[in-house]
Structure formats: C-alpha cells, structure tokens
C-alpha cells in the first residue's frame, strides 16, 4: 500500500515509510520500537492508512533492523540520538507539508518509539494526540506538550513496571494533561507486534481500534474548535 522514501536530515540520509492516499487530510507519524523500521511497523502504517490517515514512519536507525533482543539492545544503546531527532523532525515536516496547513497530526510510538511520540508534539505544532504502546517516558516533554495521551500497557512487562506506568500517568495528570491508560490482562511487552512471540491478536486489534478512535476524536474536536 505504501512505499519507502529517502529523507535527508542534518547530513544524515535515512528512509521513511509512507502510506496513504494524497487526498487524506490528517497525518500520523509512527515511531518504531528498538527493533528498527521492520515489517511490523510497515504493516501497522498500512493499516492506519486504510483507516483514513496519511501515515509516515521514520527510520531512526538509518538502516539497521534487529531480529534478536541482543541485537536490538545493542542498536538502541549505540545509535545516534541527535541524528534520530533530526530524522524525526524532518519526517514530521514532510507529513505536515503533505496534509497542508489545515491538517491535524498524531504521533504513535512503540516501546522505545514512545519517547518520540511524546517528544515530537513539544517540538512541532499541529499535533492533537500522542499514543504510546508499552512504553513509559520521563523528562520535560511530558509537561511541555498539552495534548491528550493514550497508553497501551501490558500486564506483565519486565521493561515497564506497574510502578513506572503509575508514575507516568501521575506526571501527565499533574501537568493537566488528558491521559487514558489501558492495561491488557495476560499480555507482555510487544503484544501488538505480530513478529514477536508475545503477540496477542485480540489485544492488538483492540489496541488498534482504540488508537484509531482516540486519534479521530481528537482530530475532529480540533477541527471543530
């Protein structure tokens, strides 16, 4: 449904996956997990595009894709975060250009990518919603942005404890942000990624439906304002 495009960002050449018809007026930026821009992310973008959104996913690693936890851990610890920030912003600018000045934007991030789905709306105008899959974030981006947040959290997650999820929620609420946390019984980290053993189809479908509804509601509300 979509295609890969090349992007230049502050001297770094990377790629983005772009999906969605030219006449779509609202955009979603999808930030990949620590595996990289893999087929799970591509399929998720295609599904969002079929739901009515221009959807772009930047390759924050500028090339590598991991298939094992060991390789993903190495990539996530060693990649150039400054370059990744530039790639993310260049992607957002391209999406914004595509949807036009009246278009609305949302950000979705999986695990590691959740940091960028929360960070991006603090850097660029036009965002109306942030969505995080099994990732909690700390830092100033939580209070610098004001848009609503939706988080999908696993019941048993060695990477994101219940305490960390609670702290994430409390920080957002203390900042006056609208936050919705869904916890999925019997799931673990990566439950929404088909290539992973933890994948649970029913929970992944429910999380996707909730994501689409959340984004649409807040885009519609912003358009009526």
Key structural traits:
single chain, 225 residues, alpha/beta, Rossmann fold, eight-stranded mixed β-sheet, 7 helices, 8 strands, 39% helix, 25% strand
The CATH architecture term is 3-Layer(aba) Sandwich
Quote the CATH topology: Rossmann fold
What is the residue-mean pLDDT, rounded to a whole number? 95
The helix content, as a percent range, equals 25-40%
What's the total helix number? Answer: 7
What does the radius of gyration come to?
16 Å
Report the CATH superfamily: Alpha/Beta hydrolase fold, catalytic domain
Structural class by sheet pairing and helices: alpha/beta
Q: What is the spatial order of strands in the main beta sheet? A: 1-2-4-3-5-6-7-8
What is the CATH first-level class name? Alpha Beta
How many β strands by DSSP? 8
Our count of domains comes out at 1
Tell me what portion of residues adopts beta-strand conformation: 15-25%
> Which outline best applies?
globular
Largest sheet: 8 strands, mixed
From the N-terminal CA to the C-terminal CA, the straight-line distance is 33 Å
Instruction: Please write the string of helix (H) and strand (E) elements.
Output: EEEHEHHEHEHEHEH
Q: Which consecutive residue ranges, at least 5 long each, have pLDDT under 50?
A: none
Describe the structure.
- The protein is an alpha/beta fold and 225 residues long.
- The chain has one domain: Rossmann fold (3-Layer(aba) Sandwich).
- It has helices spanning 39-50, 69-78, 81-99, 114-119, 141-144, 162-174, 201-224; strands at 3-9, 12-19, 27-31, 54-58, 105-110, 127-133, 149-156, 179-188.
- It has an eight-stranded mixed β-sheet, sandwiched between helices.
- Strand 5, helix 4 and strand 6 (127-133) form a beta-alpha-beta unit.
- The longest helix is centred in the C-terminal third of the chain and has 24 residues, at 201-224.
- The protein is globular.
